[in-house]
Structures are given as C-alpha cells and as structure tokens.
Amino acid sequence: MMVILIRITRIQRLHRTRRNCCLSLEMAKEYNPSVVEKSWYQWWEAEGLFTADAKSSKPPFVMVEPPPNVIGKLHIGHAETIAIEDCIIRYKRMSGYNTLWVLGMDHVGIATQVVMEKKLMSETGETRHDLGREEFGSG
C-alpha cells in the first residue's frame, strides 16, 4: 500500500511541475503521440535535458547518434541501435555522469563517396586517387 501511495505522490508531483502540460492523470482511451510527445518535449527542453553542463564537475559522457543512411530509410537495426543507446545514455546520467547524446551527425559521407567513386569509374575510368583530393571533393 505504501509503495502505491509513493508512486501516486510522485506522479502528482511530476504533473504539477509540468506547467505547460496537456496531460491528465486519467489514462486516455487511445495513445495520441502528438499530444504526449509535444508535452514531454517542451518539458525536456525547459529542464535543459538536451544540453550538458560545461561547468559540471561530473565526469563527461558523450555519445553521437548518426542520422539514417544515405537512402533515408529506417529499418529494425536503426530502432535497435537507438533503443540500446537510449538505455546507455540514461544509465550513465543516472550513474552521475554529465551526459550529452548528440543526434544527427553526418555519417553518410562514406556511402556517398562509394557511390561517387563507382560513378566516376564507370563514366571516366578514373579513381579518386587519379583526380586528387581537391578535384574529387569539388565534383
């Protein structure tokens, strides 16, 4: 009984701290991600949860999550990677680290380069080494 009361108290306290929240303590019939996620996102931004504290004395922990591959299609592997990284970053934050999860860094450069090299070879018979760094990078 005590555990249930503590959890209800925590939920009520969390609910009161989220001033711009459009959620209620009653469970909706259907999940509405646009309402739920918008509310949480606003609260996360207001709490500064997307930034690391540059003046923190806690040990830093930074993880970079690249965007989808060059074709832009997500698959189960992307979901699995993000879920695992989400668990890691949350664990590190709860373990006292000053965490930062940087999303959307470019990793498609290698895939793009391979496509460009194949196209160059098929059209001209040359490699990127034949052209040199400056000419290959400008094309």
Describe this structure in words.
2% of the residues are buried. The protein is 54% helix and 9% strand. Strand 1, helix 3 and strand 2 form a beta-alpha-beta unit. It contains six helices and two strands. By secondary structure, it is mostly helical. The N and C termini lie far apart (69 Å).
Rg computed from alpha carbons, rounded to a whole number of angstroms: 23 Å
Fraction of helical residues: 40-55%
Low-confidence runs of at least 5 consecutive residues:
1-5
Broad structural category: mainly alpha
For the largest sheet, list the strands in their spatial order. 1-2
Count of strand segments: 2
In short:
The protein has 139 residues and is mainly alpha-helical.
Please name the defining characteristics of this protein.
139 residues, two-stranded parallel ribbon, 6 helices, elongated, disordered N terminus
Write the layout of secondary structure elements.
Elements: H1 2-17, H2 33-46, E1 60-65, H3 76-94, E2 98-103, H4 109-124, H5 128-131, H6 133-138
Parallel strand pairs: 1-2
